[in-house]
């Protein structure tokens, strides 16, 4: 099976300079345009059998645009949501540094942010949703997954069977997508973070 892992388009939080995470901001006009271009490209080159999406507005809207063009089922999956950043959600980044400064040496991976989740819980959630998807949709040729930058990075770590303390990060641009393949006993990265569907003015 193939996993087509897609990040949502530009959201209003990107322009406001706030911590997004679980803050539920919609796509900008540019984000909508990015999503349409991505959907048309995916329909032509990598049409999925099903779309799974985070229920957060920016991802769900991106997924619905893809669904409208491809015509397949779209299913919301709670565990595809972005990192639960608790008290930081929607807070200006400079304000957050004053109100909730990062502990010296960083926050230990096992300690959750107030009202949120820890890095270990986040990684475990990505591992769990990866396992669920490859188990429940194993009979399909290609599954599209619409999510967020942080979750996608952890999802790729799960695919690569990286250790919990892995320091590698896998960034994804607006509507960038990765193609991962599971075949027999092999896991193949076909490509990562493609954005060729976007012209220079749509890169954000």
From TrEMBL:
Lineage per the UniProt record: Bacteria, Bacillati, Bacillota, Bacilli, Bacillales
Gene3D superfamilies tied to this protein: Phosphoglycerate mutase-like
InterPro entries named in the record: His_Pase_superF_clade-1, His_PPase_superfam, PGM_Phosphatase
A Pfam family per the record: His_Phos_1
UniProt KW Magnesium keyword: no
Keyword Phosphoprotein included in the entry's annotation: no
UniProt keyword terms in alphabetical order: Hydrolase
Superkingdom, natural source: Bacteria
Record protein name field: Histidine phosphatase family protein
The enzyme's E.C. designation: 3.1.3.-
Gene source species: Cytobacillus spartinae
MF GO annotations: hydrolase activity
């Amino acid at each position: 099976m193939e996993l087509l892992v897609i990040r949502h388009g530009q959201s209003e939080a990107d322009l406001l300079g706030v911590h997004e995470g679980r803050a539920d901001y919609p796509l900008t006009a540019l984000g909508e345009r990015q999503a349409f271009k991505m959907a048309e490209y995916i329909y032509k080159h990598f049409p999925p059998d099903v779309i799974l999406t985070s229920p957060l507005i920016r991802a769900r809207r991106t997924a619905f645009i893809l669904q409208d063009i491809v015509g397949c089922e779209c299913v919301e999956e709670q565990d595809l949501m972005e990192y639960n950043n608790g008290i930081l959600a929607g807070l200006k980044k400079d304000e957050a540094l004053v109100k909730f400064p990062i502990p010296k040496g960083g926050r230990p991976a096992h300690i959750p942010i107030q009202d949120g989740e820890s890095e270990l819980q986040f990684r475990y959630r990505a591992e769990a949703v990866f396992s669920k998807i490859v188990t429940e949709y194993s009979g399909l040729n290609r599954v599209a997954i619409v999510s967020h930058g942080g979750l996608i990075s952890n999802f790729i770590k799960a695919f690569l069977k990286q250790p919990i303390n892995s320091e590698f990060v896998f960034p994804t641009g607006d509507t960038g997508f990765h193609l991962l393949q599971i075949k027999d006993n092999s896991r193949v990265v076909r490509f990562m973070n493609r954005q060729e569907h976007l012209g220079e003015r749509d890169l954000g």
